[in-house]
Amino acid sequence: MTDIQAYRARLSQGQWFSALPAPLQQALLAAAQVRQLTPGQVLFRRGDPPCGLYAVVAGGIRIGAVNASGKEALLTLVEAPYWFGEIALFDDQSRTHDAFAEGATTLLLVPQAQLLRLLEQQPQYWRDIALLMSQKLRLAFIALEEMSLLPAAPRLARRLLLIAENYGEGEPRRLIHLPQEQLALMLSISRQTTNQILKELAAQGIVRLTYGEIEILDLPRLRQAAQ
User: Fold this and answer.
1) How far apart are CA 55 and CA 93, in angstroms?
2) How far apart are CA 190 and CA 61, in angstroms?
3) Strands 52-58, 60-66: parallel, antiparallel or unpaired by DSSP?
4) Measuring CA to CA, how many Å separate 38 from each of 59, 82, 215?
5) Which helix (H) or strand (E) holds 193?
6) Average pLDDT, integer, range 147-157
7) What is the pLDDT of residues 4-15, one digit of tens each?
8) DSSP 3-state assignment of 97?
9) The pLDDT of residue 106 is above 60
10) CA nearest 135: which of 124, 147, 145, 127?
11) Torsion-angle region of 196 (φ positive above 0: left; ψ -120 to 50: alpha; else: beta)
12) What is the DSSP string of 108-157?
């Protein structure tokens, strides 16, 4: 319990957890178990049964899918203090995507059975779980719209902004640990197009590119590039 409670400050940096009623915050931490993953380790795969609600407290999780021919679709890369896995609480269906550790990763797991018992005893907390899911649904709709209406360059700039702000969960950060290949997968554009756009942003002094990393140098101008 003591070790898990030590993660409260990190989780409280996220908008969703910090806005929860104090009793719900405490109940989630009291039920949580610590999971440690090595780089590349599978957390769960598409089709696996639901196991509960996760929070990233260190490292990151890559969420996506791989088809029968081995082609990968990367949906998102999330870092602390991001929560995920709530969809299965509502429909009790299998996992929709694959989840892998991006580097050494520490998670908190609130088991499905314990969380459902809590929600049965305190049904008013269902709204808080729904808010977690609705935030992601909004982002998904926005991403679909952008894919249809926006050229690749502003879409890439917008995705960098989202990642830098950890999809609304946490303080903005300047350094993004993300290879260009993964960014290209997220946006469904070629590696060559991704590299060209990033080089243009670097030439303008908006970002700095290093191996496996993108450093944001000028956040206001990146916002302009995302228009």
Assistant:
1) 20
2) 23
3) unpaired
4) 10, 18, 25
5) helix 191-203
6) 92
7) 778 998 899 899
8) coil
9) yes
10) 127
11) alpha
12) EEEEHHHHHHHHHH-GGGHHHHHHHHHHHHHHHHHHHHHHHHS-HHHHHH
Three-state DSSP state, 217: coil
Q: What is the largest CA-CA distance in the chain?
A: 57
Q: What is the tens place of the pLDDT at every residue in 64-76?
A: 887 767 677 788 8
Rounded mean pLDDT, 64-92:
85
Task: Give this prediction's pTM.
Answer: 0.83
Q: Radius of gyration over alpha carbons of the chain, in Å?
A: 18
Residue 79 burial (C-beta neighbours within 10 Å; 0-12, 13-18, 19+): buried
pLDDT of residue 1: 45
Distance CA 30, CA 78 (A): 23
Nearest of 2, 13, 123 to residue 57 by alpha carbon: 13
pLDDT tens-place string over residues 32-72: 999 999 999 999 999 999 999 999 999 999 998 877 676 77
Q: Phi, psi at residue 225, to the nearest 5°?
A: -65, -20
Residue 170, token pair as written in the block: 């946490």
Helix axes 152-164, 191-203, angle to 10 degrees: 70
How many C-beta atoms lie closer than 10 Å to residue 156's C-beta?
24
CA-nearest of 7, 10, 5 to 171 is 10
User: 63: which strand partners?
Assistant: 76, 99
